[in-house]
Amino acid sequence: xxxxxxxxxxxxxxxxxxxxxxxxxxxxxxxxxxxxxxxxxxxxxxxxxxxxxxxxxxxxxxxxxxxxxxxxxxxxxxxxxxxxxxxxxxxxxxxxxxxxxxxxxxxxxxxxxxxxxxxxxxxxxxxxxxxxxxxxxxxxxxxxxxxxxxxxxxxxxxxxxxxxxxx
Length: 167
Fold this sequence. Notes:
Elements: H1 15-27, H2 37-43, E1 57-60, E2 68-75, E3 84-91, H3 107-116, E4 120-125, E5 131-138, E6 141-149, E7 158-165
């Protein structure tokens, strides 16, 4: 995948803005075939311009505070992959650091919005019963959310580590 820095014309979005735009992108989908670079640019405001023959394109934000950034990725359809998008929040220093700078839109906001869009939900548990992720299903679209506590390992507000379509 390509990993550009902020290309000319791409906006600088907060974690809250990119989260809301990502949900708006999902809300308008009837099927995966609706996920096109043109639609992403129109709804999210990011130009990805995937090059033919590549696995897709990634847009990474500048620092959003506390070392956190987001990565928005687009995967075009191929013989082995379904068309998809993803939004992940990454910390270059410590992936379990305090998520407060990027958690104004938390897990409950994403979850409730997807349910309001008509997605069916199910929690996914690990081998010892721990919550690993949530999956949401509608038509030919499967969305996965990986939640993380605002302070990893401590009870409290749930944030979103990543959200995206699954193959």
